[in-house]
């Protein structure tokens, strides 16, 4: 392994309705086909429900709705990206994010990815920041905050 390999990592570009998320590939457990989640009574719009994954229910959320936008209608391209929880607040250790297309694996390094200073997000936003890449301006989610949102909602 040379020094330039150590400065690269693989990411997953996840299409949302009008934007893309950039996730570390290592946080992704699986991308699964859309299946209608079982809703939870009284849940906020971003908490779309639970789906069965590997024999157990996992919570699924809409990042668009967490940002105050409408939950996109599912299409033939809708998928659920199953992510490993980084903390220990989610009992199953996983959660899902709705995606509006097929995620794309990309190789990243400091020459490709730069901060986007033109966009700012509130302190308790589910988004940490936006980035600039060659042809993309993806959002970087705040995993800790997303997991806290889900854990707080499901413990009620």
Report on this model:
The chain is mainly beta and 156 residues long. The chain has helices at residues 3-6, 63-66, 143-154; strands spanning 9-15, 20-24, 28-33, 47-53, 56-61, 79-84, 94-99, 104-108, 114-115, 127-132, 139-141. The chain has a 5-stranded mixed beta sheet with strand order 3-6-7-5-4. Strands 2-1-8 form a 3-stranded antiparallel beta sheet, with no helix packed on it. The protein has a 3-stranded antiparallel beta sheet with strand order 9-10-11. Strand 1 (9-15) and strand 2 (20-24) form a beta hairpin. The protein starts with a helix and ends with a helix.
Distance between the termini: 48 Å
CATH superfamily: CheA-289, Domain 4
Q: Name the average pLDDT.
A: 90
How many helices in DSSP terms? 3
Order of SSEs: HEEEEEHEEEEEEH
Helix % is 10-25%
Kindly report the spatial arrangement of strands forming the biggest sheet.
Answer: 3-6-7-5-4
Q: What is the rounded Rg?
A: 16 Å
For the biggest sheet, the summary is: 5 strands, mixed
Q: Structural class, please?
A: mainly beta
Shape: globular
Sequence stretches where pLDDT stays below 50 over 5 or more residues: none
Oligomer: single chain
The portion of residues forming beta strands comes to 35-45%
CATH class categorisation: Mainly Beta
Q: What would CATH call the architecture?
A: Beta Barrel
- Looking at the structure, the CATH topology is OB fold (Dihydrolipoamide Acetyltransferase, E2P)
DSSP strand count: 11
